[in-house]
Amino acid sequence: GWTRTAKQTHRYVIPEVRRSDAGVYQCVVRNRMGALLQRRAELQVAFMGIFSGEQQRRTVSVGRAAVLNTPTVSCFPRPQVTWYRDGHKIIPSNRVAVSLDNQLVVLSARADDVGRYYVQAVNELTGQNRTSPSVYLSMAGEKTLRKERREKRGVTEERDRLSHHQLAIETGRHKKTWLPKEESQHNRRGRDRDALSALL
Length: 200
What we know:
By secondary structure, the protein is of the alpha+beta class. The chain has 2 helices and 17 strands. It has helices spanning about 140-175, 185-200, and strands spanning about 1-5, 10, 25, 30, 35, 40-45, 45-50, 55-60, 65-70, 75, 80-85, 90, 95-100, 105, 115-120, 130, 135-140. The strands form 6 sheets. Strands 8, 11, 12, 15, 16 and 17 form a 6-stranded mixed β-sheet that branches. It has a 3-stranded antiparallel β-sheet with strand order 9-14-13, with no helix packed on it. A two-stranded antiparallel sheet has the order 1-2.
């Protein structure tokens, strides 16, 4: 109710503000002569609820656009939203953008876009923050892509192995003299002198 705080002053006090207290307030003064209406005052209550919904899974074809909607959260004022993928903050680029409605738009999706996406919402007035349920984005034919990458990696490794083998064969065509590890420097010099004497 109204509380009289001074002779000509009255104040309406809400000890503990709740969300239900939000609304428009107006003071009305009445006496025998009539009524006087004060200007309306709107009370806004800052708060932050929790995200609704559960974890989801989305599939998109390679080269197509993927649009991820922001999970719903009750909040006033509107929260500051940041998108993350696998724990890393998403930086907008010419291929990845965040709309005015905080939708995440991935143009021309690639295999490396696969991952777990979620948002972190912050109420800048109350300092509260919430993390949304995640959306796992996968690529259509993802298993085929992984198989192709493994096959490509296998071909590359086989090509490298054959290249080393060919190099070893070509090296073997040239006449080389390899000294055993245990042969001493003295024995090698003696053998060289014998070969020189035979030529003379």
